[in-house]
Design brief:
Distance between the termini: 52 Å
CATH class of the largest domain: Alpha Beta
Radius of gyration: 21 Å
Number of domains: 2
Bound molecules: S-adenosylmethionine
Strand content: 5-15%
Strand order of the largest sheet: 3-2-1-4-5-7-6
Order of helices and strands: HHHHEHEHHEHEHEHEE
């Protein structure tokens, strides 16, 4: 293919790749555009490119097909989870050999991507909903990671702390932002706290800022954890409420520059952001 042909074919290639990654039905693939493109081109490079499917480590997830089920939004993966996972994979050094606490983990995709790609020392998935926690545990096991039974076990196994340890120590914890205490959060000894798509109504915004305030009282080696919150900008007022409440709680923040590399098949037009919080 001439260079100009390959630039023209790039969107078609991406479209195949996205549908492949999202395990979409074959009938939804853009076969007609492919046929037209192949009629116009002399070589078979486009076909070869399409057949070279994306490669790399994989994540297996059991999740619901409904956006809300069992009274929770946590049984499906939301776009900001994918966006945060992409950002983490572009910045693995921020996670390597550190203990990560994720708030409102939902189905667990972000954490599983970080566990597989960013070499954290320990990873605490957390949520407050029983069905979500049950599915989360299943998803962790489905991906070949073993679960520590409690915080004490998470802190043990010093032999796992060597730089070349293969798997992080992983725990799934019930953490309800409204009732968790500072000592309970401090026991996880987090170096970094992350959350994706947890700003969807005023009540959750207030609860989230509350737990972030508690985390700002958790020091490890005289440092408070770094914190990153990713969200889809659906309703500007909810985002505004979040930043206003952060200001009220005395938590400065800055927006993390957008990353361009899209690995996951989320909607092209949804606007997303990650805020870094100085707890
Ligand atoms: C929209 S889902 C996002 C799940 C996942 N982070 C993602 O992006 O796919 C929001 C999650 O936050 C959890 N959540 C909401 N309020 C919470 C609270 N007060 N304490 C702990 N988790 C909470 C829900 O159970 C749910 O799993």
């Amino acid at each position: 293919m001439a260079p100009e042909d390959s630039a023209e074919a790039a969107p078609l290639l991406r479209s195949f790749e996205r549908r492949f990654l999202a395990a979409r039905a074959l009938s939804s693939f853009p076969w007609q555009s492919l046929e037209e493109k192949l009629r116009d081109s002399s070589g078979s490079e486009l076909l070869l490119d399409i057949l070279q499917k994306p490669s790399g480590d994989s994540i297996t997830l059991c999740e619901s097909t409904a956006i809300i089920s069992h009274g929770t939004t946590g049984l499906v993966t939301w776009n900001a989870a994918l966006y945060l996972a992409e950002w983490a994979m572009e910045n693995p050094a921020g996670f390597a050999h550190r203990t990560v606490l994720e708030l409102g983990s939902g189905a667990g995709l972000t954490g599983l991507a970080i566990c597989k790609m960013c070499r954290p020392r320990a990873y605490v998935f957390s949520d407050c909903h029983s069905h979500v926690l049950e599915q989360l545990q299943g998803n962790v096991l489905l991906n070949g990671l073993s679960l520590e039974p409690n915080v004490a076990a998470l802190a043990q196994h010093p032999e796992h702390d060597t730089a070349d340890a293969e798997s992080p120590r992983v725990m799934v914890a019930r953490v309800d932002w409204d009732v968790v205490t500072v000592p309970q959060l401090a026991a996880f000894q987090p170096d970094i706290v992350i959350a994706a798509d947890v700003l969807y109504c005023p009540e959750t915004v207030l609860s989230l800022v509350g737990v972030l305030q508690k985390l700002s009282a958790c020091q490890k080696d005289q440092r408070v954890p770094d914190a990153y919150v990713a969200f889809t900008i659906r309703n500007p007022e909810t985002c505004q409420l979040f930043t206003t409440e952060l200001g009220r709680a005395g938590i400065p923040w800055e927006e993390v520059p957008r990353h361009d590399q899209k690995l996951f098949p989320y909607e092209e037009h949804s606007e997303m952001a990650i805020l870094k919080l100085m707890l």
